[in-house]
Amino acid sequence: MAYALAAAIARGRQDVILVPYDTQADRIELFKRDFPRVEGAAHPRQTVEETRLCVAAVKPQVLPRALQDLGETRGLLVSIAAGVPLAKLQGYCPLARFIRVMPNTPALVGEMTGAFTPGLGVSAEDRELAAGLLQCAGPLIEVEESLMDGVTGLSGSGPAFFARLAQGFIDAGRELGLEESDARLLTLQTMKGTAALLLERGYSCEALISMVSSPGGTTLAGREILEASDAGEVIRRTVLRAAARSRELGGE
Ligand SMILES: NC(=O)c1ccc[n+]([C@@H]2O[C@H](COP(=O)([O-])OP(=O)(O)OC[C@H]3O[C@@H](n4cnc5c(N)ncnc54)[C@H](OP(=O)(O)O)[C@@H]3O)[C@@H](O)[C@H]2O)c1
Q1: Are both 112 and 169 inside the same structural domain?
Q2: Phi and psi dihedrals of 141, rounded to 5?
Q3: Does the pLDDT of residue 252 top 80, yes or no?
């Protein structure tokens, strides 16, 4: 995720200098190789002492250690860790100002979405700085912290769920005789085009479904199978389970 966010910021904001730190030095080299303005840090503390905003992009399980390595910082810290609440973050670095963010991996191609919640002491200027940088990767919404587990289950984990659905379409295309690469293109461009139509024209999902469903046609025939199944319920339970896991991670 750190690489994905850095890629988007490097693309969108040429004025920004990135100061990456990783426990493995070769990962810092990767940033230096791929982005134009990078000054790798020798110690994690450098990432808060020499920057206006520091993103902690480590697994929730290693976050306490990573934050403790930053020392008694008063800096502006962004946590992207799934499930870890602001109160807990503040406990690791009591003097810091925290913003909790839930991004997603489409950040790699500038198509991220997600949400953020500012913690105690975060100023309007801090919020603007963080949103301005992170939104290089795609739109973020501001939500109450109580909604962050839901955002994690929906858009944080969502790319994996959509990819699983896409695999089903690709497999069906193969069964119908299409080459793998053709089935993949038709599936993925259909997903992308559907999303673009819904986003850009503002249609409801129901309106779009009706538009594609001619009486007696192919879509209606397919929908008879889809809508007689429990696919909608399975998707609902999938997202709710991911959100519940986010809550569990916060308690661990
Ligand atoms: N992946 C997603 O789709 C996604 C989506 C939304 C949010 N998130 C959140 O993003 C965070 C990062 O996830 P990720 O998938 O990018 O994790 P990741 O692939 O494990 O990347 C974290 C990097 O930080 C390094 N690291 C470990 N301890 C460190 C320390 N003390 N100081 C500095 N660097 C350290 C890790 O090295 P080692 O490999 O040697 O441990 C690794 O290179 C997680 O909290 C996750 O909940 C992820």
Answers
A1: no
A2: -110, 155
A3: no
Residues 133 and 165 in one domain: no
Supply the residue whose CA is at minimum distance from atom 46 of ligand 1. Answer: 81
Verify whether ligand 1 is closer than 6 Å to residue 82 (CB atom).
yes
How much is the pLDDT for 182? 98
- Render pLDDT for 202-211 as a digit per residue (tens, 0 to 9): 999 999 999 9
Shared-domain flag, residues 109 and 6: yes
- Within 10 angstroms of residue 141's Cβ, the number of other Cβ atoms is 11
Both 21 and 47 in one domain: the answer is yes
* Structural domain count, the chain: 2
Phi, psi of 106 (to 5 degrees): -60, -5
Tell me the average pLDDT of the chain: 95
pLDDT, residue 250, reads 78
Residue 68 lies inside a defined structural domain of this protein: yes
Cα–Cα distance, 236 to 221 (Å, whole number): 24
Domain-located, residue 151: no
Q: Is 46 exposed, middle or buried (0-12, 13-18, 19+ CB in 10 A)?
A: middle
Last residue of a domain, one of 89, 111, 143: 143
Does the beta carbon of 27 sit less than 6 angstroms from any atom of ligand 1? yes
Mutate to test the pocket of ligand 1, among 47, 58, 113, 152 (most ligand atoms within 8 A of CB): 58
41 ligand 1 Cβ < 6 A: no
Q: Is 1 in the pocket of ligand 1 (CB under 6 A)?
A: yes
Quick check: pTM over 0.85? yes
